[in-house]
Amino acid sequence: MSSNDNLSSESKERDRKESLPHESQKPPLRLGVLISGSGSNLRALIDAIERQQLPGVEIALVVSNKADAYGLQRALKHKVPAIYLPWSNGGAGFTPARSTPAQSTLARSTLTPAAPSPAMSPGESQLSVLLHLFQVDLVVLAGWMRILSATFLEQFPQRVINIHPALLPDNGIGNTYTTSNGTHIPVFRGLHAVQQALDAGVKITGSCVHFVTPQVDAGPVICREEVAIEVGDTEESLHERLKAVEHRLIVEAVRKYKP
Ligand code: GRF
């Protein structure tokens, strides 16, 4: 091969690399974080983004189905758009969360909610409009207390993840989980999973982040960590330790997420 050939293949390789998008040129991954309560997991995401621990990730929107969810105030404090979406009657439309005058980045939506499709509740139809309007790539259920229907989930395939305060098997299915020390424990799903673990008398529980499927708390696991139950643990004390773990897991899950 002549030196000219070498030069031309080097310059072709350089041209090829230059035509590839740089990490910084990639469009950001836009999160829609759904909450119903204190929003400590939302806070973990905000902190990780502010500390540059999640490059290329931004929070496009926070939605709460509860007007007084403290997570809304956390969002506003960090200038993240936040909306209270009344869920029970579904017909009330969007209500921007209240902010002080200094907290002025709140999204103010003047949208008319879309007509609900037959299989989605009015709340789901409104939520879907919002998530599309804010161009959300990944929906993070961070303490969101409403079940989402299969029709809703079909609009965001493999793009809805949830934090669950109990251990699920890798594929999310089945009623038994085998802990790292080989003990078989029941899988706790649904409400009060922390108390369910205490009531069952297991020695180990944990938290995981998993993809959301129409079956409640039964989707493939993205990341998971076990937590030992201590003598004298109450639902509150155990949940507090689980949340400390969740704050790492949710950041790890978003980092691992590949569209
Ligand atoms: C978390 O423990 C999560 O596992 C469960 O709801 C809780 C939300 O906590 N799904 P926070 O609102 O993020 O503090």
Going by CATH, the architecture of the largest domain would be 3-Layer(aba) Sandwich
CATH class of the largest domain: Alpha Beta
- Compute the separation of the termini in Å: 42 Å
Largest sheet: 8 strands, mixed
CATH superfamily of the largest domain: Formyl transferase, N-terminal domain
Structural class: alpha/beta
From the spread of the alpha carbons, the general shape counts as: globular
Low-confidence stretches: 100-112
DSSP helical segment count: 7
Oligomer: single chain
Structure description:
The protein is α/β, with parallel strands linked by helices. The chain has 2 domains: 27-157, Formyl transferase, N-terminal domain (Rossmann fold, 3-Layer(aba) Sandwich), CATH 3.40.50.170; 162-259, Rossmann fold. It has helices at 3-19, 40-50, 70-77, 122-133, 150-154, 193-200, 235-256, and strands at 29-35, 57-64, 82-84, 95-96, 138-141, 160-164, 176-178, 184-186, 204-211, 221-228. The strands form 2 sheets. An 8-stranded mixed sheet has the order 4-3-2-1-5-6-9-10. α2 (40-50) packs parallel to α7 (235-256). The two termini are 42 Å apart. 5-O-phosphono-beta-D-ribofuranosylamine binds at residues 35, 37-41, 71, 142-143, 163-165, 207, 243, 246.
